[in-house]
Amino acid sequence: MSALKITAEARQSTGKGVARKLREAGRIPAVLYGKGQDGVSLSLDGYELGLLLSKPGAKTSVLELEVQGGGKGETKNVLIKDVQKHPYKDVVLHMDLLEVAMDQDISVMVPIEIVGTAKGVKMDGGILEMKRRELEIVCLPDIIPDSLTVDITELEIGDNIHVEDLKVPEGVTIPHDVNFTILTIVAAAVEPEPEEEVEGEEVEEAEAPEAEPEAEPGEEE
């Protein structure tokens, strides 16, 4: 599979006003971070970025970033560190990129992918409860998996998958101190049935007639 590529332009100006003008021109402000160096301000083509993000594994793959400006283009190996989106529109507002060394391990977050339908869900009406939807892994940049796959087909109500149950590709490790739960199959909550009323079980008390007030001495009855 060929490496995913994206181009960027170096920019000197920063600030909210500059970022707004970039977006109006169809470009997305970005910052490139690297070990032991300050962030470098860039801008990305919005259309090209949209195509890139639509490809499977783009957020966990090493990208070839070509930085243009200042003369000759320079290519760097980067990962997408963070994508800031509009609160309610599918629009990228800002992106952080991280330069990586291909011969050094890196820590990244990858999603958990569920395969199959659990017996406890299909046969017994249970519910799949996800405790974690992504996990931190450590590996070389060129072997980062798109996701960690979990087959839940044989799970019944009460069964759990813990972090130590996961199978990871060779060269990939999951740093953890506690064997925490990834997912579990629980029984569906059962609503209590309303109690049936038995005829004659409840007898209404007859209302006692109100007593007439006694006449005060000297008053006519």
Walkthrough of the structure:
The chain contains 3 helices and 12 strands. The chain has 221 residues and is mostly beta strands. The chain has 2 domains: 97 residues, Ribosomal Protein L25, Chain P (Beta Barrel); 80 residues, Ribosomal protein L25, C-terminal domain (RNA Polymerase Alpha Subunit, Chain A, domain 2, Beta Complex), CATH 2.170.120.20. Strand 2 and strand 3 form a beta hairpin.
Q: What's the quick description here?
A:
This protein is 10% helix and 38% strand. The chain contains 3 helices and 12 strands.
Count of DSSP strands: 12
- Give the DSSP E fraction (strand runs of 2 or more residues): 35-45%
Give the quaternary arrangement of the chains.
single chain
Q: Largest sheet, described in full?
A: 6 strands, mixed, barrel
CATH homologous superfamily designation of the largest domain: Ribosomal Protein L25, Chain P
Low-confidence stretches: 214-221
Q: Secondary-structure map with pairings?
A:
Layout: E1 4-10, H1 16-24, E2 27-34, E3 37-45, H2 46-53, E4 63-68, E5 74-85, E6 92-99, E7 106-115, H3 119-122, E8 127-130, E9 134-139, E10 148-151, E11 160-162, E12 181-186
Parallel strand pairs: 1-4, 2-6, 7-10
Antiparallel strand pairs: 1-3, 2-3, 4-5, 5-6, 7-9, 8-12, 11-12
